[in-house]
Amino acid sequence: MTSQHHTIKFPTTNHQPITLEKHQKLSEHLTIENSPVLFGCRTGICGTCLVIIKGDIPPPSAEEKEILEIFAPGNPQARLACQIQLTNDIEITIFERK
């Protein structure tokens, strides 16, 4: 039996882990006051919420892949936090732009 809740950890920050329901969008839960992740458009086009994911989640959509190719080419762990569909526990670190 699979869990209906998943934990998101932010290991490189002082933010406490959060638990969300399966398939809940991270961007709908995190606000500017409680988020280690910065969000801009929340639609997956600006790249502001680019993060590195450790854990198993569904692959990015074709649209998200296009943005990831611009902001994090060749990095298979890079994802847009606003587009993540939770299906397992994950760890999120902020993507360090060069």
What does this protein structure show overall?
The chain has a five-stranded mixed β-sheet. The protein is globular and about 30 Å long. The model has no long low-confidence stretch (mean pLDDT 88). The protein is 14% helix and 22% strand. By secondary structure, the chain is an alpha+beta fold. It has one domain: Beta-grasp domain (Ubiquitin-like (UB roll), Roll), CATH 3.10.20.30. It has two helices and five strands. The protein starts with a strand and ends with a strand.
Could you give the topology of this structure?
Elements: E1 5-9, E2 18-21, H1 26-29, E3 50-54, H2 62-71, E4 78-80, E5 90-94
Parallel strand pairs: 1-5
Antiparallel strand pairs: 1-2, 3-4, 3-5
Summarize the structure.
By secondary structure, the protein is an alpha+beta fold. It contains two helices and five strands; from the N terminus they run ββαβαββ.
